[in-house]
What does this fold into?
Amino acid sequence: MLNISHISKTFNPGTADSKLALDDLCLDVDDGEFITIIGANGAGKSTLFGAIAGSFFTDEGRITLDGEDITMMPEYLRARKIGRLFQDPMRGTAPGMTIEENLSLAAGHGGWLSMAGSGQKKEFREMLRQLEMGLEDRMKQPMGLLSGGQRQAVTLLMATINPPSLLLLDEHTAALDPAAADKVLAITEEVVKKDHLTCLMITHNMQSALKLGTRTLMMDAGRIILDVSGSERGSMKVEDLLERFKSISGKALDNDRMLLTSEKDS
Amino acid sequence: MIMYSLIQTALELGLTGALTVLALYLSYTMLNVCDLSTDGCFTMGATVGAVVAIAGHPCLSIPAAMAAGVLSGFVVSVLQTKMGIESLLAGIIVNTAWYSVNIAIMGNSSLLNMNKTDTIFSMLKDSLKGTILEDSSKLIIPFIAVALVIVFLSVFLRTRLGLAIRATGNNPDMVRSSSVNPAFTTTVGLCIANSFTALSGCLLAQSQKSVNIDIGSGMVTIALASLLIGQTLFTKGGITTKAVGAVAGAVIFRLVYTIALRLNMPAYMLKLISSVIVVIAIAGPYFKSRLPMMQRKMMLKRKDNA
It folds into this structure.
């Protein structure tokens, strides 16, 4: 359903800061796959998401989604099919607007001049109740009063309120405290399962990279250097992953945060 | 009696100007764009309205002026969303350009007189002849216009488009990665806001029966001062309350100004005062947030000296 064919992207070409962020990258994603992506800082993980979501246009290659060529499609048009969450919980919601208004905007039923009816508000309430964060009684409060975890949970609701063809999660739990991160991750699994979403998730936690989802990619220097799924992935441990990275890329994984997390968890 | 006419004048001017304040409420407070084309757009509303009224169509002058405002807002938004011109600069450029355009609209003149022209005010006055409201036409028309704009904004800002416009001003990052095109919401917001600004200019010109090229000069600062006064007084409440607050700010500003004139303040002080109000209203919260840091600095200094 998502087909990425030989895309490349160089930032600041022709300057001293020139950086090849995506290097002839190819990826095929099937319907319903839940892919976790790991890699060192600057490996090109977020850049890959940017290319898919249309934050910038790639220099080369083509991207198709659901059979439609989206290579040159502007970001806001792609957003109708692609939901995206960022690490910063402040980024996905409007703090000065109420929870209800944020959800109404995301739901977007009807035309530009439509308003959320009472039936729809009831639906919002039910969705919020399922988060088990007590937000269903705070629908008239501004989003800015919520904690990071709560905001990220609502952002997840907003991104999936109209089930997208593709959900991109860019370390969306990394800025949260451990309890909130677990909670948001649990909600994520539930939402993805309920709507059979196709999902790509960047994570720095190697344990959850192997535990969650159906397939794991490892990136380095703008390329995908490891792609495991099925039984091979099922039997893999964090140490195996680190070992594989070292043997393929010829260097140790230099993401401090990632190593710390894997040591703590294993 | 003097007091009464004083208040009436302040209300008339306050309500007429309140339309520009409501325009800034949409563009500045909601969309987070400081639209510096406001002065030129205000004058354009005044000139277009005057020309149409002088041509014998006072009723048509209102939609004509508002259409000119939409056009003005559209030009500003195209400059900033499609041509990579920074939003403040886009406003300044349009403001400058409209100076020439407005003189052209007035037929190579920088002054139009409407003493012998039928205006919407004189028309209403004629139809109210003999009633107690006869002398209140200058109050009734702006009042109705302000009420309609507030009702419109209260509904519009709750529609999906209105929510999208508010989100564009509130969290552009969010809108950029959502299915809303920020260029579109900015354009719609600026077009609507500027139609109010032009309406404001149109009403002022017809109520004072003349328009000159400077009629809108400094209007953005005066309106901003009124808006900030309103926001200081109405800190709580939803979008409707805040819109009412913006209008209250405009009336209070005019009232204080009118009283100051009575106390022999020269009229030319208006623009200095509005500038000072804007500075205080924006710098005040800034200094307040820095106060703990400054106190700590002083305490450390005192300790060092001890």
